[in-house]
Design goal:
The protein has 530 residues and is an alpha/beta fold. It contains 17 helices and 24 strands. The protein has three domains: 255 residues, 3-Layer(aba) Sandwich (Rossmann fold); 170 residues, 3-Layer(aba) Sandwich (Rossmann fold); 72 residues, no CATH class. The radius of gyration is 26 Å and the shape is globular.
């Protein structure tokens, strides 16, 4: 019998010794609604976690998965609805209070102190500590505790020397050590190899089926849902799209629930035109993530003049890193990028020569200097060229004059062009960046989630301006986690999953459910020539 098959015993963080636990109680979130101003993030959503089961929470980015979980954990207070544990209403006001109810979360990004040992991370995570810590005793107790779980990590080893899989195991061990009977995992496989992910999720499933814990698995991967989960709940745009057992729901049905069965309608004006010459060629592009692991795996595609190529995919599958390579913010480890037939490394000179413009996600953080004025930020693209500089000196009057003109044209709401751009709303920051990037010679526009978090009016205006650039002959690469946006703007759609292009289709032939399956990693083999 494995350790996972034993009844779960945990170290009480406030007492010495071990105590045996019963099967966890049922967790239920009933009719949860959560609003942020005029935005309804969740509307009348219900969710039930059966004792001793693994329940997958599935949905696109922005579907409301994280908001629902944060309402359960006490990060947010729901506007209506209630959370029940074992049939009794609970109202945790913080994650610490949720922990006292036996509910804990393993976040997508590690929350460990790198220079501390495994044992130090566990002991110092307790709610209360003695004035003097007997480390020899703690090491013995932690070793004994680990014998009751299927997870083993060297207790004396510094966290910085652990592999990613060991760190993920340690995060789970920490929740068990702190007494969590219900463990919520946020995209646990995003930092693991497939083999590591299968091991970790398999061990947790063993513990759940032994009645030791109950598990909520936040994921976007159908394979993980079907292989490791007992039940699944699907959210779409803040509403409950469906729920059931994994035995009842196949990949086709899950895809339809996640992205819908109806194609979104196009709400912007499109000029029908034949695409021109190829302006962007990406061939076998490879790159590593921040931890040095491969994140882009032989990505190949092209974009022609007068077309928008939309890259769809659930966040975390390499789209951010692709944009960073094309923007010169991340080095490629292999492959090539060519613009207008020339080798391209995203230098400032190449951006100017080839007319490459960039609209990154979160422009205030990635495309602006918050403390500088609106005029100065608009001038970042051309401040060192005539008529805005002379013999190395800035002509601030010319920069401000041009900024005033663009602020009017792009409807940027700002007290003046001398206002720090960080004081503007998100939509107006986006408009200001667009005014800079879409003025002048625009051959290639790379836009990443350009309307994320913006209101309807700003979204409509920005989408139309991107489409106008395409109508005027620019090549546009649109990277977006919003399928409605992809369908509204794109001429061709590519799908990225696990760092690869796995599907390519013209917009006229695009099938929403099929794209949803590929986004979830449940499609066919990748195309040979996207």
């Amino acid at each position: 019998m494995t350790a996972a098959a034993l009844a779960y015993e945990s170290l009480d963080p406030n007492q010495s010794g071990f105590r045996r636990r019963d099967v966890p109680p049922e967790l239920a979130a009933l009719n949860i609604t959560k609003r942020f101003g005029s935005l309804t993030a969740l509307e009348d959503v219900s969710f039930r976690l059966r004792p001793g089961s693994v329940h997958a929470l599935l949905g696109e980015n922005g579907a409301g998965k994280s908001t629902l979980v944060k309402c359960i954990l006490g990060y947010y207070r729901a506007d209506s609805g209630e959370v029940q544990l074992g049939g009794r209403t609970i109202t945790p006001k913080s994650p610490r209070e949720a922990r006292r109810h036996g509910i804990g979360m393993v976040f997508q990004h590690f929350t460990l102190v790198e220079n501390m040992t495994v044992a130090e991370n566990l002991v110092l995570a307790r709610a209360e500590l003695p004035a003097r810590i007997d480390w020899a005793k703690q090491h013995r107790e932690i070793e004994a505790f680990m014998d009751t779980t299927p997870f083993r990590v060297p207790v004396h080893k510094p966290v910085r020397k652990l592999a990613a899989g060991e760190k993920q195991k340690l995060e789970i061990i920490k929740q068990l050590y702190l007494g969590s009977r219900i463990v919520i995992l946020d995209e646990p496989s995003s930092v693991l190899t497939p083999d590591e992910a299968d091991e970790v999720l398999g061990l947790l499933r063993e513990m759940a089926h032994a009645g030791a814990v109950s598990v909520v698995l936040i994921t976007h991967k159908f394979r993980e849902v079907q292989q490791f989960a007992d039940d699944v709940t699907v959210l779409r745009r803040g509403t409950l799209a469906g729920t059931g057992t994994t035995a009842e729901l196949d990949a086709q049905r899950l895809a339809e629930m996640m992205v819908g069965a109806e194609l979104p309608s196009t709400a912007v004006a499109r000029v029908e035109r034949a695409a021109g010459d190829t302006l962007l060629e990406v061939e076998n592009l490879r790159a590593n993530d921040d931890l040095g692991a491969p994140i882009l795996r032989d990505v190949s595609f092209s974009v022609r003049a007068g077309e928008i190529v939309g890259i769809a995919g659930v966040s975390g599958n390499g789209q951010d890193e692709l944009v960073e390579v094309l923007a010169g913010q991340r080095a490629a480890s292999g492959g090539s990028v060519r613009v207008r037939g020339c080798e391209y490394r995203a230098s400032r000179a190449e951006l100017h020569t080839h007319g490459v413009r960039l609209l990154p996600e979160a422009p205030l953080a990635n495309a602006c200097i918050a403390e500088m004025s609106v005029a100065e930020n608009i001038g970042l693209r051309s401040f060192d060229r005539a008529p805005f500089s002379w013999l190395g000196f800035l002509k601030k009057g010319a920069i401000r004059k041009r900024a005033r003109s663009l602020v009017r044209e792009f409807k940027v709401r700002t007290p003046s062009v001398d206002t720090p751009i960080g004081a503007l709303s998100g939509g107006n920051v986006q408009r200001a960046v667009l005014s800079r990037e879409l003025t002048g010679n625009v051959t290639l526009l790379i836009a990443a989630n350009p309307c994320f978090g913006l209101d309807f009016a700003a979204t409509s205006d920005i989408r139309q301006r991107i489409l106008n650039a395409r109508n005027e002959g620019a090549a546009v690469l649109l990277v977006s986690a919003d399928l409605e946006e992809i369908f509204a703007l794109s001429d061709r759609i590519l799908v990225m999953s696990e760092g690869r292009i796995v599907h390519a289709v013209d917009i006229a032939e695009a099938n929403l459910a099929e794209i949803g399956r590929h986004m979830a990693g449940h499609g066919s083999d990748p195309p040979s020539a996207p």
